[in-house]
Each structure stands twice: as structure tokens, then as C-alpha cells.
Specification:
The chain is of the alpha/beta class. 20% of the residues lie in helices and 7% in strands.
């Protein structure tokens, strides 16, 4: 409804006083209105775009063919996405090859030459155990996802005995460090546990199944989260193998291998012998 303006009483100031109540005087005179402003109301400039009116004459620029051009599939109908004119589609000619191995792990490599260089620069202390926390804090490794693997490139440059704890280690790296009087220990980590180790909320070495020295508690009260142990058979057997210097090798009995399935010949449970009494009872119960 158009807005109304104030109503003025058309009564002169010299008029005689009336017996009508003042609030009734406006009702006795006609009201006046201004021109309607509804037709001039508009939104802010560029607040929205006008709808394109197609097929409304050539002056609009979208008349006659409505912006589709002359003839052809694009003018008469729709064209499927990635349509290549009928020839073999690109996704068939250049399709995906191979597959993604969901069981693979992304290990961050670190070589012995880099470890020795960090020691020479004073960024690593060889007198203390070197774990993922020290490697990450010194920026010797970065963006660690599933773990750190120790490799032997530049092994001839290594001259300092080390006590290093990583996820995996090559045989050449293990032999070089042990030849200098050091030690290598491989232990299991998960991506979440690595993040917590770098934040300092998880012990980078000890877990429930790890071997501890006498007098060391199984749970360190200084850490919030516990370091997990492997649950899959593949990981358990890897860290039970002393050739890999696994931290679970102390759980393997003497004379046994790291496998959870294969046992040493002669150590399996003896087969149960069936008693002859059951056969006799079965023969008595026969009808013929």
C-alpha cells in the first residue's frame, strides 16, 4: 500500500471554536496522498543479474536461435560430457592402469651419511638414543607418515657409534652401525602415534610388549598416550625377527622362528589317540 503523508486539518486558525472533539477533526476533512514510490524501488546495484530472455527478438542479442547458433547437435539437443565426436573416448584410450596397493607403507628414508652430517653439526646427540622424536625435532626427516627407514648410503662416512630406534633398517645399515659398536632397534609405529611422539605426548620407545630394564615402569606418568604394539600378523612377525633387530625378538623362544604359524618340527601338540572302547560300543549298537 502506498505510504501516507501526514493529514492536515483544513481548519484556519481564525475559525471559531467547535464543539467537536479535536481528535475527530481529521475525519471530517479529505486526505491527500503523494505519488506512489513502489514502481521506483530497486535493490542495490549489481545485487543480482537479470534473467536472460531468449527468443524475444534480434535486438536483445539472444533472439531467433537463442544463442545456440545454427544447426548441429549443440543447437538441437544436448551433448554428453567428454563426447569426442563418436570416436573412442579419451577415458578408454588413456584410461587408468595398474592399481593401488592398500597394504603398502610410506616409509621416510634417512641415510647414514645424513645422520653423520647432523651429528657433526651438533643437531643430534650420539650419547643419547636417537628416535623419531629427535630425528623430527632436528629436521633430519620431515613429513613422516608411516615410519622411518634407515638406509646405508654413505656408510663409509659414518664414524660415530649410534643407538638408533627406527621403524625399519636395511641389513647394510645394521651391519655398519654394529661394526662401530652401536645398536639398531626397529619398532612399530602408527601414523597417529608418530604425531603424538613429535608433540611429546607419547613415549617414543617403550610400550607394553617392549623389553624394559629392571626398575623401569611399564607406564610412564609423564606421557598422556600409550605407544601401541602391532596387531596384524605381518607386522608382528617382522618385529619378532632378530635379523631385523625387532623390539619383540625377546618374545621368541629359543629354537623357534619369528613366524606365528610355522613351528619347529617336533614341538607341535601330539595327536590324540582314539580309544578302542568307543569302537567296541559302536559295534554293539549295530542292528546287523
Amino acid at each position: 500500500m502506498p505510504p501516507r503523508i501526514c493529514i492536515r486539518a483544513l481548519v484556519s486558525s481564525n475559525a471559531r471554536p467547535s464543539l467537536i472533539a479535536p481528535f475527530l477533526i481529521p475525519c471530517l476533512h479529505s486526505q491527500s496522498r503523494v505519488v506512489s514510490i513502489l514502481s521506483s524501488l530497486s535493490d542495490n546495484p549489481k545485487a543480482y543479474n537479470k534473467k536472460i530472455r531468449r527468443g524475444r527478438g534480434p535486438s536483445s542479442g539472444k533472439g531467433k536461435t537463442s544463442g545456440r547458433g545454427h544447426k548441429g547437435q549443440k543447437q538441437h539437443g544436448k551433448v554428453p560430457k567428454a563426447f569426442n565426436g563418436g570416436q573412442t573416448p579419451d577415458e578408454v584410450v588413456h584410461g587408468k592402469r595398474g592399481y593401488k596397493n592398500v597394504f603398502s607403507v610410506d616409509m621416510t628414508p634417512v641415510n647414514l651419511e645424513k645422520v653423520q652430517s647432523w651429528i657433526d653439526q651438533g643437531r643430534l646427540d650420539p650419547s643419547l638414543p636417537i628416535t623419531i622424536k629427535e630425528l623430527g625435532a632436528s629436521r633430519c626427516v620431515a613429513n613422516v607418515k608411516d615410519g622411518v627407514k634407515l638406509l646405508a648410503r654413505g656408510s663409509e662416512q659414518l664414524r660415530t657409534p649410534l643407538n638408533i630406534i627406527v621403524s625399519r633398517a636395511s641389513a647394510a645399515a645394521i651391519s655398519r652401525i654394529e661394526a662401530l659398536g652401536g645398536s639398531v632397534t626397529t619398532r612399530y609405529y602408527t601414523p597417529f602415534s608418530i604425531q603424538r611422539i613429535l608433540k611429546g605426548t607419547t613415549d617414543p620407545v617403550n610400550s607394553i610388549q617392549s623389553k624394559r630394564a629392571e626398575g623401569v615402569e611399564k607406564r610412564n606418568p609423564g606421557f598422556v598416550h600409550r605407544l601401541p604394539d602391532p596387531a596384524s600378523r605381518k607386522d608382528i612377525e617382522y618385529y619378532r625377527d632378530s635379523a631385523h633387530r625387532g623390539y619383540l625378538s625377546h618374545l621368541v623362544e629359543e629354537g623357534q622362528g619369528p613366524s606365528l604359524f610355522f613351528k619347529k618340527p617336533g614341538t607341535s601338540f601330539p595327536a590324540k589317540k582314539k580309544s578302542s572302547g568307543s569302537r567296541a560300543v559302536a559295534g554293539e549298537n549295530r542292528i546287523w
